[in-house]
Amino acid sequence: MLRRQCDAGDTLLPRLRLLSRTTAMRIDVLTLFPAMFAGPLDESIIQRARAEGLLDVAIHNLRDYTHDRHRTVDDKPFGGGPGMLLKPEPIFEAVETLAGDRARVILLTPAGRTFRQALARELAREAHLLLICGSYEGVDERVRQALVDDELSIGDYVLTNGALPAMVVIDAVARLLPGVLGDDESSRDESFSHGLLEYPQYTRPAEFRGMKVPEVLLSGNHAETEKWRREEATKKTKERRPDLAGGKWGDGVVG
Ligand code: 21W
């Protein structure tokens, strides 16, 4: 079965990578702003992953799951107060239509736990994600109770809705799927998965406007170069991100 997915000319490495995933990862997104997703998912590495059948993303307009003339998705909160809430019926109908019984259902909300690289790695092992984008109005609590497996925030700042956060999650997860990054990108990534920020890097020319590339990098001495890079990365991490300091959570946060 696996064999048929490989062309005769394939080298051994891409063939082995296929062993860990035989079908594309499926990601469904439920949003009030489907048009926001057009650019980011149609460019670069994500587009290539989709074209190669490694990732299957579908964007769904929450309004398509309403049945009234005005395509109503929100209503006033019981108990009063300002603003409106996303009403449960369209979200329930959408999730019941899209999730099957295997999808991991994730609500993007500022009240969620912060999305980190460790969770991106965990999500990359799932077969099917369903991302529900929050809106400024908030969501009826019964959605959380009955449908949602995880609530995620992407950080402590206020956005207008959950569409950008959903794209951030898709991007972080997609690049971890087997075969999405080239061999060079992947091995480079692995060598940084030790919880340090990146060391300073230089390319030609060796001197530019009086600014010189550190001598050790021109020396050709690999051991000295490695030592310099490790020291610089450690120094930078201690200065800028003392909370990471050497990857104390074994988290593999990349720089
Ligand atoms: C902004 C939703 C503010 C809800 C009284 C009670 C998803 C997000 C979002 C948004 C509120 C993420 C209110 C980082 C984000 C998101 C829109 C608060 C108003 N008044 N990660 N509640 N930052 N943002 N609701 O904004 O949906 S993940």
Small molecules bound in the structure, each named once: ligand 21W
Structural class: alpha/beta
**What is the first-to-last residue Cα distance?**
39 Å
Cα shape: elongated
Helix content: 25-40%
Radius of gyration: 22 Å
User: Which spans have pLDDT < 50 for at least 5 consecutive residues?
Assistant: 1-15, 248-252
What about the largest sheet?
A: 5 strands, parallel
Q: Helix-strand pattern, N to C?
A: HEHHEEEHEHEHEHHEEHH
Strand adjacency order, main sheet: 2-1-6-5-7
Which percent band covers the strand fraction? 15-25%
Number of DSSP strands? 9
Mean pLDDT equals 89
Q: Count of helices?
A: 10
How does this structure look, described?
With about 260 residues, the chain is α/β, with parallel strands linked by helices. It is about 35% helix and about 15% strand. The strands form three sheets. It has a five-stranded parallel beta sheet with strand order 2-1-6-5-7, sandwiched between helices. A hairpin with a 2-residue loop joins β8 and β9. α4 runs parallel beside α6. The longest helix is centred in the last third of the chain and has 19 residues. The radius of gyration is 22 Å and the shape is elongated. Bound molecules: ligand 21W. Ligand 21W binds next to β5.
Please give the structural blueprint.
Layout lengths: L11 H7 L6 E7 L6 H4 L2 H8 L3 E7 L12 E2 L9 E2 L1 H11 L5 E11 L2 H7 L4 E6 L7 H7 L2 E4 L9 H12 L8 H9 L15 E2 L2 E2 L2 H4 L3 H19 L15
Parallel strand pairs: 1-2, 1-6, 5-6, 5-7
Antiparallel strand pairs: 3-4, 8-9
This protein binds ligand 21W.
Ligand 21W binds next to strand 5.
